[in-house]
Amino acid sequence: MPQGDKRHYTGKQKRQAEHIEEGYERRGLSQDEAERRAWATVNKVHHGGEKPGGGGYGKQEDNEPICKGGRKGGKR
């Protein structure tokens, strides 16, 4: 699978990445950096692509990166 190829991601993962990317853009990051960080977060949660042939197939999700992300220190 070539670098940057998103064929082995499910629809849910693609939606999650888009939603995370929008949040980063609202916080002032460039579109490229927001996209890079969003996919890094999705990969951390799902261990890569979920469809057969992807590295994360059959592994349980780790939601820690989603739960702790987006918070700024010292604010409630």
Derived structural class: mainly alpha
* Radius of gyration, in angstroms, nearest whole number: 13 Å
Largest sheet: none
The low-pLDDT segments are: none
Helical stretch count? 3
Distance between the termini: 42 Å
Attribute tags:
76 residues; mainly alpha; 3 helices; globular
Task: Kindly describe this structure.
The mean pLDDT is 82. Helix 1 crosses helix 2. It is built from 3 helices and no strands. Helix content is 49%, strand content 0%. It has helices at 11-26, 31-46, 64-68. It is mostly helical and 76 residues long.
Short description:
49% of the residues lie in helices and 0% in strands.
How is this fold's topology laid out?
Layout: H1 11-26, H2 31-46, H3 64-68
